[in-house]
Design a protein that fits this description.
Layout: H1 2-6, E1 14-19, H2 26-36, E2 40-42, H3 45-53, H4 69-84, E3 90-93, H5 97-108, H6 113-121, E4 126-130, H7 148-162, E5 166-169, H8 173-189
Parallel strand pairs: 1-3, 1-4, 2-3, 4-5
Helix pairs in contact: 2-8, 5-6, 5-7
Length: 190
């Protein structure tokens, strides 16, 4: 992880992270934005990671352990770097190390120092913080609908502490898309 921690995100393509709690439409919005801006998006590696192990997990077992964090973060960054090389002007990322750090704090009660360092050093052009004002859609990977408000506060606090630029996105699906497009248009214009 040391090599990842010291590498800054390339400025050639502006990277926009969809950020926030589960079931807020990050994947859907990332895909829609990529279509609108005629570019690419990076799906969440964690979802693939968990899907691969779900069939072998005993009922009630945790989906992810703290020991899995290096593989999850490394997989996400590798996917992001591979797609960034092909993106046009802007790349939409369906997570980042800071989001993983927020979840580590929530699920494990701590953030490993290597992850804290990586999250601080990996700056993005913009984060879109998605509010929890959407209907929770259950699936086998989503486990805490009752904590969405608390998680939103944790995500917002993490962004405030990071000092990185973000825009809050809320409302119905159409409003979310309009707000996100306007934020990305402003980013690309400025």
């Amino acid at each position: 992880m040391a090599a990842l921690a010291t590498r800054r995100v390339s400025e050639a393509v502006k990277r926009v992270v969809l950020f926030g709690p589960e079931s807020t439409g990050k994947s859907r919005l990332a895909q829609r934005l990529a279509e609108h801006f005629a570019t690419l998006w990076v799906p969440e590696f964690l979802r693939q990671f968990v899907d691969a192990r779900l069939p072998s997990l005993p009922p009630g077992a945790p989906l992810v352990a703290e020991a899995d964090l290096p593989a999850i973060v490394s997989g996400q960054i590798s996917a992001e770097e591979a797609v960034a090389a092909q993106a046009r002007r802007v790349l939409f990322c369906d997570t980042d190390p800071l989001q993983t750090a927020v979840y580590a704090q929530h699920y494990f009660g701590r953030v490993p120092e290597w992850l804290r360092t990586l999250a601080a050093r990996r700056a993005y052009a913009l984060r879109l913080l998605l509010d929890v004002d959407t209907l929770f859609v259950p699936d086998p990977q989503r486990d805490r609908p009752e904590f969405r408000g608390e998680l939103f506060a944790l995500f917002k606090s993490a962004l405030d502490r990071s000092g990185q630029r973000y825009v809050e996105i809320r409302g119905d699906w159409n409003a979310r898309e309009r707000l996100a497009i306007a934020a990305v248009d402003a980013l690309l214009a400025g």
